Amino acid sequence: MSSKPTRQAMPEHDAVEGSAENAEQALTPGAVLDHGRYRLLAKVGSDPRCDAELWRAKDGVLGRDVALTILTGDRSDSQSASSARRTLERAMHASTFNHVGVARVLDVVTPAPGDPDGVLGVVIAEWTHGTDLLDLVSEGPLPPGTAARLLQPLAAAVEAAHHAGLVLGADHPQRIRVTPEGEVRMAFPGPLSAASSTDDVRGLGAALYLLLTGRWALDGAPEGLALAPTGPDGTIVAPRTLRPTVPLELSTVALRALGSQDGNGTTGGVRTGAAVLRVLEQHATFDGPTSVVQQPPTGGDTHEVWSTQDPKPDKVKRKKLAISVGALAVATLLVIGWIAANLIGIFAGGDQAEGPSKTLGEPDQQARPVPVQVTGGTPIIKEQTPDSPDKIPNLYDGDPSTSWATDSYNDQFGSGFKSGTGTLLTLQRPTSVREVVIDSPSAGTVVEVRAANGPNPNVDASPLLGQQTLNAGQTTIPIAQGQPTQNLIVWVKQLAPSGGKYQSRINEITVQGTAS
Fold first, then answer.
1. Largest pairwise CA distance in the chain
2. End-to-end Cα spacing for the chain
């Protein structure tokens, strides 16, 4: 995170602060900037890290409302002026960038005659109607699915800007607004002079943390906004600790984007907007309605009402709905058929009345797969050292909020240093395994399931029962029919990309089978 310019340590400190204070006093509703073109309507925030004032203003030439990021400081201080000039240059470079998640930069101006003393420059952007991000959580944090859905446009904008070599400066809550359509947007562009793409990703993590908890996790928080709590070791407390209903993956990506540790002590490694966006897309839902009514600012327009409830389901939800209706219809027909068959049996008498009837095509009860308890687990490797051996019990403890994870590697498995890693699970009884269900947030992980002939098996010589590439969430691995086994190898042969490295996490493994 970039800090306030180092002019604070210079002999001119008092003069610098005095100039900023004079500018703030002169920046009042009705004041004009840039030869009288922009008339200030209402102050909507400030960014004390760079002495910036955030205003809604009226463009007198084009007759439209605009967003002004006004940089203040001492014009005679070369360092202050240089920092402001760098911010203006970066904002100008972003003027060609168009994305729904960012307000378009319309102009960048330097101080003009008649502007208040202490104004070092102004970034003019299109005005974002809607509500302040802080108003959105004024009555409490949002449902996790809603928070994930709202933040997607901003995460996509950060990723697109970084591909274009730009930095947005999306790391302050009052620079971000929510549109009437329910999309979080960077409303006041103008990154700090030393800001990097990492700061944008940290800003995404902080925005997600804010929506999930109502607390801010970075510097420069506005007065009155609660700060994220820290644990005894100084690390930020996970959102899931404050709100147990927050999904583990959302909680983890917020912390890792911030560069903090997750609940398992793993240091953050999310460095791209794309990584954050993938998790948001997986957890975005259309939760119950959450509305915010924004009072019109001075000189503004009428009340604007925004609701997080989408007016109609998207294509995916419509498809799921159609499938559900079809399944219900099929189930209804089966029930009717079963009742009819039983009535025929009652009236017909004979052998059909001597035992329980069975629907045509229904498998015997004994052949149906049932959950098989896992009673133990040990690490298993071919070379080097095991990964997180103390966390293996988390794989079968019945609690998906706990997990086991591989180490974080610079290279993919199979590149010469290590061919894979895994665990040997001991089942309660010898079982003909039918399927293995793996709950994991690490999409792209490739897992093999093998039958082991004892407590110290040779992985390559153990029969392969099934293999699958994991999706985020639950993935079912069908198992080919084989001899009953009481020892099962779950072998990770390919890791998932994670923040520029490779790492996989598994929350829970469940086994379905039939007893021998």
1. 107
2. 60
- Statement: residue 421 has pLDDT above 60: yes
Residue 108: name the closest of 34, 29, 174 by CA.
34
Which three-class secondary structure state does DSSP give residue 230? strand
From the DSSP assignment, how many helices (H) and strands (E) are in the chain?
9, 23
Q: Taking Cα atoms as reference points, which of 189, 217, 194 lies closest to residue 205?
A: 217
Instruction: Report how far apart, in Å, the C-alpha atoms of 426 and of each of 9, 68, 421, 484 are.
Output: 64, 64, 17, 13
The residue to which tokens 């904002």 are assigned: 91
| Chain length of the chain | 516
Question: Cα 88 to the chain's mean position, in Å?
Answer: 30
And the tokens for 362? 């229904």
What are the distances in angstroms from CA 209 to CA 186, 250, 254, 497? Answer: 17, 9, 6, 23
Letter for the amino acid at 323? I
Q: Are 388 and 407 spatial neighbours (Cβ–Cβ below 8 Å)?
A: yes
Highest mean pLDDT out of 16-20, 292-296, 351-355: 16-20
pTM of the entire predicted model:
0.54
Tell the residue number behind the tokens 């930069």, with chain if given.
105
Mean pLDDT of the chain: 79
DSSP codes, 469-514: EPPSEEEEEE------EEEEEEEEEEPPEETTEE--EE-EEEEEEE
Using alpha carbons, select from 496, 506, 438 the residue that is nearest to residue 270: 496
> Going by C-beta distance under 8 Å and a sequence separation of 6 or more, which residues neighbour residue 139?
none
431-452 pLDDT, tens per residue?
889 899 999 999 999 999 999 8
- Rounded distance between C-alpha atoms, residue 503 and residue 286, angstroms: 30
Mention every residue, 6+ apart, whose C-beta is less than 8 A from residue 166.
Answer: 90, 93, 94, 97
Taking only the tens place, the pLDDT of each residue in 455-506 is: 788 888 888 888 999 998 899 998 876 678 889 999 999 999 988 888 999 9
